[in-house]
Amino acid sequence: MLTDPLFLIAAAACLGVAVILALGIGTFGKEGLDNAKRSNKFMRWRIIAQFVAVILILLFVFIRRQGGQ
């Protein structure tokens, strides 16, 4: 499974979601209007990245169940 390119892409997408989440949470505690806007922007990006990660995971599961590699 670790040699499957789709698995590696899905895992990278999950890691990307975690990084975006950490950046968004990190800006929550800082004061200022700019930080609030930045935190909100990070959370929007997290939702998009999370959607992509879920689609990739579902695609990986679907292909594996169909007997691919």
Automatic annotation (TrEMBL):
NCBIfam families, per database record? twin_helix
Q: Which UniProt keywords apply?
A: Membrane, Transmembrane, Transmembrane helix
Give start-end ranges for the coiled-coil region(s): none
Spell out where the chain crosses the membrane: 6-25, 45-63
Q: What is the lineage of its organism?
A: Bacteria, Pseudomonadati, Pseudomonadota, Alphaproteobacteria, Rhodobacterales
HIG1 domain ranges (all copies): 1-69
This protein's species is Roseovarius litoreus
Quote the Gene3D superfamilies the UniProt record gives.
Answer: 6.10.140.1320
Q: Which InterPro entries match?
A: Hypoxia_induced_domain
Q: What protein name does the entry list? A: Hypoxia induced protein conserved region
